[in-house]
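[Help] Beginner question about ligand-bound structures

Sorry if this is basic. My supervisor gave me a protein sequence and a SMILES string for zinc ion and asked me to "get the holo structure". I don't really know what that means in practice or what format the answer should be in. Inputs are pasted below exactly as I got them.
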Amino acid sequence: MKKQVWIWLLILTAMVCFLISLTGQIQQFAKLSSLLAEEDIRELLRQQKIPTELFETFCGYEKDSEYSRYDYMLGYLFTEQEGQRELEEYLELLYQYQKSKIQELSEMEQAVWKDLEYFPVPLSPKDSSLVTSFENSWMFDRNYGGNRGHEGTDIMASFNERGHYPVISMTDGTVEKVGWLKLGGYRIGIRAPNGGYFYYAHLYDYAREFQEGEEIKAGELLGFMGDSGYGEEEGTVGKFAVHLHLGIYVNDKNGSEVSVNPYWVLKWLEEKRLNYQFSQEEKRLNDQFSQEEKRLNDQFSQEEKRLSYQFSREEAENADQIG
Ligand SMILES: [Zn+2]
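Answer (accepted):
No worries, everyone starts somewhere. Holo just means with the ligand present. The predicted complex, written as structure tokens, is below.
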């Protein structure tokens, strides 16, 4: 009798051990197959929820590691783990079993982040009231142009007047699309070297006549913030408050376009703002103006205003604006 109990206990223990190891295997399998759940991955990639401090943390992990910051970022997006060891365990599995998939995703991650240099709206050192604000409105409902979600971030102007805030390129790249769209109004799309497409919409005006295929430098003036768009007719304005709609798009390996939430990217770039200022000659002339002339000066046509903005990346760099 006693012997039988021992045998049963032994069998039970063996079964428990077997179940534990099976559960472990199932968990590991589930982790891996979660990568196969294409829709989930795509959605997390699109939301791109990387807080600034974590981005910096992953840059730190990258040193002396076989994994890049973009790998760690993907690991975080898919698991919400922040620790280096946990992320590396996950990445090791991915590179072992899903190498081409993780490489593709890592390239998409680079396309979003690698070319970023500046926040798209520089600061005015002359007028501290000219500020901007933005919130995470990813996929919020939009009513114009059918039922659709908001695929971008709106940078709102504290001073609601078209043509007042300069808009600069966040990245190097080439002009891929320029001109009127009924939704985006006057827009310009820049393709950055790592493949990301950066889309600036609702502009009041362009800095100059851009040609498709033309090279652009990060920090280069693209145009001025406005309220164009939401109309079949070219030049429609006034349908909403002055703002810059910013969109980011990347391509997967099949070439299909995926929109990405720019909110966390912009949060990170907020620390990287350029200043803009008048050129010395214009400043001198400006200082000689009487109050009356100054008033008239404010009434300058947009064309003249446009000319009077001169960027000095060098000065901004000296002012330690760039991290
Ligand atoms: Zn928008």
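A couple of things worth pointing out: The longest helix spans residues 2-36. Confidence is low (pLDDT under 50) at residues 279-323. Feel free to follow up in the thread.
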